[in-house]
Specification:
The structure holds 2 protein chains of 2 kinds. By secondary structure, chain A is mainly α. Chain A contains 13 helices and no strands. Chain A has a single domain, classed as MetI-like fold (Orthogonal Bundle), CATH 1.10.3720.10. Chain A is flat. By secondary structure, chain B is α+β, with helices and mostly antiparallel strands. Chain B folds into 2 domains: about 170 residues, Periplasmic binding protein-like II (D-Maltodextrin-Binding Protein, domain 2, 3-Layer(aba) Sandwich); about 210 residues, 3-Layer(aba) Sandwich (D-Maltodextrin-Binding Protein, domain 2), CATH 3.40.190. Helix content of chain B is about 45%, strand content about 15%. In chain B, helix 2 runs antiparallel to helix 13, helix 7 crosses helix 9 and helix 10 packs across helix 11. In chain B, about 50% of the residues are buried. The chains are: A mainly alpha, B alpha+beta. Chains A and B meet through helix 1 and helix 12 of A and helix 1, helix 3, helix 10 and helix 16 of B. Chain B: This is Carbohydrate ABC transporter substrate-binding protein, CUT1 family.
Chain lengths: ~325, ~425
């Protein structure tokens, strides 16, 4: 009978598959299993309790008329799913959520990369500037929304309107009451709040690019612009993938910023899907419909993210 | 021995977690404390400093009852918290029923029938018709009503030549034109997430003139929003068509509106008594008065309704104590304290409230029932319809929808809700 530390060999004396000629076959001892349970158990328990069970409940409730007050719920089939597509406010919410996501992803990327390149240079006060640009990422987004609602107030006494009037004699601009300007204002504040954080992310990647590449490029006569497009940008592709995934997920689930700025108005122009889910589920007691909306949205978000990652990886592969 | 230690440790951790979880799940027994004291649980949306004097007086009159107070701010957060507590069986003995949650609470039997309770004789009409009743039974006890009216800057009004409040809608529009000619914004509302009180008052005046219960007719299918609401919407829209009300109203909050009024930039705003103190604080020398919204045919109405009411949990641990608390709130003494502490316009039959002189006229109108609020008049799906109305009235103010389209939109939403 072989002991746990014996080498297992084939008939011709060569080490058997799975065995190591330098040492014995290692069987998993009992204490490793117990350690694994202690280490991974709590994490798995949290995942099950806080994610899988609520997910399962949401999917179940999406097929019922559960209203959040009664403990009984009747099966209604696909009625909740049909009502999601029939509700004009939710269609408007989907449109703005997509517009918001695309706009913030593109504009933040366009702003953050050059900002990171500038922050990578040496200049006086660089650390202070870096801190100031990162600052909007610290406070709660809801607080930022409240502050900006004061700045962008459409009244003549609104801060920005008062400044514009004092400097240029302009009439009050309806920043938050005109539909197009309201959407633009929400996107502007979102870009302002996120650009600094993503610039710091890009900065970290920039600082890991070997200086040799730039030195070699300079020797070859490459201009600053050429160095940016042929060295910096391609080597930032991994950072861009991370940044854009984060921006996409943040954009698709956005709620607090548009809500504090405009409460989803005027009309439904800045109404978001998450606001629709919360409104239906918490305020209206239509938990069944809110669950159907959240299941549909989850599928949509997964599809968007998978597509994004596939396309990004391909682009990364081609460039690198 | 090493693997035995690991397993012992794992078992110890699991056992501790199980004990901790079971303790978290335990609820304390509030039914009685030591010495025969009864604990009454009360989930409020009025802050503790406001309610404390009433609770202290009640406990003084009922030495064996102690009130266990908990709070959530109105309305969405309060209703969401109440919903969770009812579902988990931890709801208080007494809580609030409001216009948005009343249908769900009544339909799910989460409120006690108060119809024949002795304290209901202190409530106007025994609570019938206050909006917290259904099928002849009353489920909420309201001790006050709230109202919103037009607040007018009396200095600017005098400059515009106003000698008495406008009695008809046409007179109001003429007054607005004078303010506009003076270079002052005539009217400003706070429509960011709110139904227009002017629109609500106009609908109320229209319904009062028509008689009957037009809301019941709409919800029973005998009438429609198009038939009942188009005319008041057209009247209301004249403010925006003529440029008397600023379109910025769609995205401003009450505090911004009050600031503009206190700074003399706006002649009239629409708000309730809760803004009396802030206006006085912002502009101590400003003379202002509240007045009704005059209807096209001379009716004088305010936006408003019975305030959120007190309800008893059918599964209350202390139903007798809960009844005593409601009896105290509706008593003359309780109403007096309520009026003083919350600046509320109490509507009990046993006490006439003292109010700021600037809102005396409005208080009389509210106590006389010249108030209307859509959410209270509507029979079901109040919040969903209210959300639709808020969005559509914003679009109406911006000129994106016509009055007929707004009314049709409400009909479409009601149909969609089934």
């Amino acid at each position: 009978m072989t002991a746990a530390t014996d080498v297992i060999t084939n008939v011709d004396g060569t080490p058997a598959r799975g065995s190591d000629a330098r040492g014995p076959v290692r069987r998993l001892p009992w204490r490793s299993s117990a350690s694994s349970v202690i280490i991974y158990g709590p994490i798995i328990a949290v995942l099950v309790v806080l994610f899988l069970i609520p997910l399962g409940q949401s999917i179940y409730y999406s097929f019922t008329d559960f209203n959040g007050y009664s403990t009984t719920a009747k099966f209604v089939g696909l009625k909740n799913y049909a009502s999601v597509f029939a509700d004009p406010s939710l269609r408007a919410a989907l449109f703005f959520t997509i517009v918001y996501t695309f706009a913030t992803v593109i504009i933040v990327t366009i702003v953050a990369i050059p900002l990171a390149v500038i922050l990578d240079q040496k200049f006086r006060g660089r650390n202070f500037v870096r801190s100031m640009l990162f600052f909007p990422a610290i406070p709660s987004v809801a607080i930022l929304g409240l502050v900006w609602s004061f700045i962008l107030s459409p009244l003549a006494s609104g801060m920005l309107n008062a400044i514009l009037h004092a400097l240029f004699g302009l009439a009050p601009v309806p920043w938050l009451s005109d539909p197009l300007l309201a959407r633009g204002s929400v996107i502007f504040v979102a870009v302002w709040a996120q650009a600094g954080w993503h610039a710091v992310l890009y900065l970290a990647y920039l600082q890991s690019i070997p200086r040799d590449y730039y030195e070699a490029a300079m020797i070859d006569g490459a201009s600053t612009r050429q160095q940016f497009f042929y060295i910096t940008l391609p080597l930032l592709m991994p950072a861009m993938l991370i940044s854009q995934v984060l921006l996409t997920t943040a954009g698709l689930k956005v709620y607090d910023l548009p809500f504090t700025l405009t409460k989803g108005g005027p009309g439904y122009v800045t109404f978001t899907i998450t606001q629709g889910i919360l409104q239906n589920g918490l305020t209206l007691g239509q938990v069944g419909q809110a669950s159907a909306l959240s299941v549909l949205f989850m599928v949509f978000v997964i599809a968007v993210l998978v597509t994004q990652m596939v396309l990004s990886r391909r682009a990364e592969g081609r460039v690198l | 021995m090493t693997h035995r230690r690991a397993y012992s440790a794992a078992l110890a951790v699991l056992a501790s977690a199980a004990i901790a979880l079971s303790l978290i799940g335990c609820s304390s027994d509030n039914s009685s404390g030591s010495g025969g004291t009864t604990t009454l649980t009360y989930f409020a949306w009025d802050t503790k400093p406001l309610m404390q004097p009433l609770m202290d007086e009640f406990e003084k009159e009922n030495p064996t009852i102690k009130i266990d107070y908990s709070f959530a701010p109105p309305q969405e957060q309060y209703n969401a918290t109440l919903q969770k507590r009812i579902l988990s069986g931890t709801a208080a003995d007494v809580y609030m029923i409001d216009g948005e949650n009343r249908t769900a609470l009544i339909d799910n039997h989460d409120v006690t029938d108060l119809t024949d309770k002795p304290f209901m004789k202190n409530i106007q009409n025994g609570g019938h018709g206050n909006g917290y009743d259904a099928n002849g039974h009353v489920y909420g006890m309201n001790v006050s009503s709230w109202g919103n009216g037009l607040v007018i800057n009396m200095k600017l009004a005098k400059e515009a030549g106003m000698t008495e409040p406008p009695k008809t809608w046409a007179e109001l529009l003429q007054l607005c034109q004078k303010f506009k000619d003076m270079g002052v914004t005539p009217v400003e509302e706070a429509l960011n997430g709110n139904v227009s009180p002017i629109l609500a008052a106009l609908v109320g005046a229209e319904f009062a003139q028509e008689g009957g219960d037009p809301d019941a007719a709409i919800f029973s299918g005998k009438s429609t929003f198009a038939a009942q609401w188009t005319k008041p919407l057209q009247t209301y829209n004249e403010l925006y068509q003529h440029g008397y009300a600023t379109k910025a109203s769609v995205s401003i909050d009450p505090s911004e509106m009050v600031n503009e009024f206190a700074n003399g930039k706006v002649a009239m705003i629409v708000t309730g008594p809760e803004q009396v103190a802030p206006i006085h604080a912002a502009a101590p020398d400003l003379k202002f008065e509240y007045m009704a919204v005059p209807g096209p045919d001379g009716g004088q109405f305010y936006a408003g309704s019975a305030s959120a009411s007190y309800a008893i949990n059918p599964k209350a641990k202390e139903p007798d104590a809960a009844a005593k608390w409601l009896a105290f709130l509706s008593s003359a003494e309780g109403a007096k304290m309520y009026n003083k502490q919350l600046n509320a316009i109490t509507t009990t039959t046993n006490f006439k409230p003292t109010v700021d002189p600037s809102i005396q006229t409005m208080a009389d109108g509210i106590r006389a029932g010249h108030i209307y609020w859509p959410v209270i008049g509507w029979k079901r799906d109040q919040q969903a319809l209210s959300n639709t109305l808020v969005a559509e009235q914003q679009q109406l103010a911006l000129g994106q929808l016509s009055p007929a389209q707004v009314a049709a939109g409400l009909d479409a939403k009601l149909k969609q809700l089934g």
